[in-house]
Amino acid sequence: MAYVAAPLERLIEQFAKLPGIGRKGATRYAYQVLSMSKQDAMEFAQAIQDAHTKVRRCKVCQNFTEDEICAICSNAGRDHSVICVVESPRDVTAFERTRAFRGVYHVLHGLLSPMDGITAEQLCIKELLDRLKDGEIQELIMATNSTVEGEATAMYIAKLVKPLGVKVTRLAYGLPVGSDIQYADEVTLGSSLTNRKEL
Fold it and tell me: Domains in the chain, start-ordered, CATH in brackets?
């Protein structure tokens, strides 16, 4: 095996920890970092540090933000009576690309998965229920992926919310079963929003 300098090996190992990145891809990224100018490398490192120290969860919707309350939650022009419930911040980005949704969001930061030890207490479900207490919310759109975990999470939340008199709908999937929302094109995602059904 060829000798690799220890700092380079550590960089390769760090890249390899990222999901979907194997040893070969991690090695390519590490060498790319080494080919950067010192200035570019410092900016890259600073961007990672800033993301970790300056980004936090919005105290209302749990999406990532620099501020206490994110730009969507603080926007008076949005329809605050409709909440689109998603698994991750990446899903918010996907929906915002469609420009078809003018409501607000709630990010669960995961899905129920008893097999993996992920329970309701580990998700941001309590924070969602707290948002429903003032009676302003009229509809929850369950926009979790059409996987076993996504469906189970949607049904679990629907059962908790129904007694509160809030309408709970589910995306109409023109998406293939088992696919991820974040990879859907804007037209398909916009259509699934428009044609959502009640749970």
Answer: 6-54 (1.10.8.420), 75-198 (3.40.1360.10)
